[in-house]
């Protein structure tokens, strides 16, 4: 009986030998690099920006994971980065992205930090950045301002921190190399019909997603509306699923821009979010970002942690698992079963 490289690796892991073969790496084997994004699991990080002891600089996390998380308080042209302070910065982003400079800077320096890593490693694996806009776009801060902060869209990219050409955007996925027209299917339809590009195709790219905040859940909805109006173009609006499928009631007519869902693992394990819901998303090739802060338990058990990642892939089709155990040796890239 023939066996693929991916299944051989999974067999080794199940037998207890995988820890030697599968080191804690963000690099995929050739077999996984050829797979589309919806058919792999990538390692992610929970609240990466506040882990100053673990990651001296935000970009240090990219040695361990493929997705990082940044919490943002957006108001009055300010973009504060902290967990709970809406008018201050508390994070591991060095000023202007220069490692060794003072940390606790605003979103501009966090983007500069990602940009510096990107310039130094132009052929890096796909990097995903999840933004939680804690209070939504508030008091003058808008989806357009967010895009301009990153890629200076209003000036044609002249002062871009990260050039738009280096970002994998919803328009790239929906329209391909051409321009969208009135007859172009929605992003949701395109993903359902064609799926996502392969990891190989996405090398050297950065991908942004926006999730609802704890104070206001409005940011993804506003960003999807701006996408429909042609006023925004860089980020994927994602929705946190807490119980039933609320995509239609949340996004309304702009639902076609939503192709990423974010879910707490405990809600899946406990049945609050039914397995049939995530099965349906998976059939439509939507990406599922699942948050499981301690897959390896306490104290950390690497083998148990990797078995947990496999279980999240097998039972819930997890494309990304975000954890607080980034440097434990648990996170790695593998094909979904």
TrEMBL record:
Coiled-coil region(s): none
Pfam families per UniProt: PI-PLC-C1
Keywords from the UniProt entry: Lipoprotein, Signal
Protein's name according to its UniProt entry: Lipoprotein
Keyword Transferase: no
Domain of life: Bacteria
Stretch forming the signal peptide: 1-28
């Amino acid at each position: 009986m023939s066996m693929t490289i991916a299944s051989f690796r999974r067999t080794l892991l199940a037998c207890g030998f995988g820890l030697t073969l599968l080191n804690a790496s963000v690099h995929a084997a050739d077999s996984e690099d050829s797979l589309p994004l919806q058919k792999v699991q990538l390692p992610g990080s929970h609240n990466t920006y506040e882990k100053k002891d673990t990651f001296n600089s935000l970009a240090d996390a990219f040695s361990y994971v493929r997705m990082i998380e940044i919490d943002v308080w957006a108001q009055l042209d300010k973009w504060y980065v902290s967990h709970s302070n809406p008018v201050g910065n508390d994070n591991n982003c060095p000023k202007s992205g220069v490692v060794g400079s003072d940390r606790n800077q605003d979103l501009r320096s966090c983007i500069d930090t990602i940009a510096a890593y990107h310039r130094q490693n132009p052929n890096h694996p796909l990097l995903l950045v999840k933004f939680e806009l804690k209070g939504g776009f508030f008091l003058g801060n808008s989806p357009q301002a967010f895009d301009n902060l990153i890629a200076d869209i209003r000036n044609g990219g002249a002062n871009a921190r990260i050039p738009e050409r280096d970002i994998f955007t919803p328009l790239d996925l929906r329209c391909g190399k051409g321009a969208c027209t009135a007859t172009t299917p929605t992003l949701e339809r395109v993903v359902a019909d064609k799926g996502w590009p392969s990891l190989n195709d996405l090398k050297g790219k950065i991908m942004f997603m926006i999730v609802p905040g704890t104070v206001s859940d409005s940011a993804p909805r506003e960003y999807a509306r701006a996408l429909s109006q042609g006023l925004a173009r860089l980020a994927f609006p994602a929705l946190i699923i807490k119980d039933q499928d609320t995509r239609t009631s949340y996004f309304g007519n702009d639902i076609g821009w939503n192709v990423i869902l974010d879910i707490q693992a405990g809600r899946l394990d406990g049945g609050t979010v039914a397995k049939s819901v995530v099965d349906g998303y998976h059939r439509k090739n939507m990406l599922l970002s699942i948050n499981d802060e301690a897959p390896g338990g306490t104290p950390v058990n690497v083998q148990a942690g990797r078995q947990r990642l496999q279980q999240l892939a097998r039972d819930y089709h997890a494309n990304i698992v975000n954890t607080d155990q980034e440097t434990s040796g648990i996170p790695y890239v593998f094909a979904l079963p």
